[in-house]
Amino acid sequence: DLEMPVMGGLEATRRIRALESTYNNNRHHLSSSNNNDNDNNGNNNNNVNNNNGDNGDNSDDHGCTIPIVGLSGNARELHINEALAAGMQLFLTKPYQKEQLLETI
């Protein structure tokens, strides 16, 4: 929701996107440095264990992106543009139907 008492949706979205950026930059840096972890015989010495073979973050090689859908009772274009500029992918206006939310998700 764009307007919440402690932290509004715009600020929450900006903080989530900042954390993603830090995570993705660190992940890229670690990935680049791990590519050089070979022993003197050219064998890769990376020890990576995954329970199910994936990296657990629902991402591709470009990093993770958490889907964020904005909600507000204000349907003005200004509010929608602010939400999208903050990093929300989609925006729903209240009141919305359950089916709209499920389709969006």
Question: What would you note in describing this structure?
Answer:
41% of the residues lie in helices and 8% in strands. It has 3 helices and 2 strands, in the order H-E-H-E-H. It has helices at 9-34, 77-86, 98-104; strands spanning 69-72, 90-93. It has a two-stranded parallel ribbon with strand order 1-2. Helix 2 links the parallel strand 1 (69-72) and strand 2. The chain starts with 8 loop residues before the first helix and ends with a helix.
Low-confidence stretches: 41-60
Helix content: 40-55%
Secondary-structure class? mainly alpha
For the largest beta sheet, what order do the strands appear in spatially?
1-2
* Sequence of secondary-structure elements: HEHEH
The major beta sheet can be summarized as: 2 strands, parallel
Q: In percent terms, what proportion of residues is strand?
A: 5-15%
Question: Count of helical segments?
Answer: 3
Using DSSP, what is the number of strands? 2
Look at the structure and give the mean pLDDT.
Answer: 76
Give the overall shape: elongated
Assembly state: single chain
The radius of gyration over CA amounts to: 19 Å
> Distance between the terminal alpha carbons, to the nearest Å?
15 Å
SSE blueprint:
Elements (H helix, E strand, L loop, with lengths): L8 H26 L34 E4 L4 H10 L3 E4 L4 H7 L1
Parallel strand pairs: 1-2
Characteristic key phrases:
105 residues; mainly alpha; 3 helices; 2 strands
Gist of the model:
With 105 residues, this protein is mainly alpha-helical. The chain contains 3 helices and 2 strands.
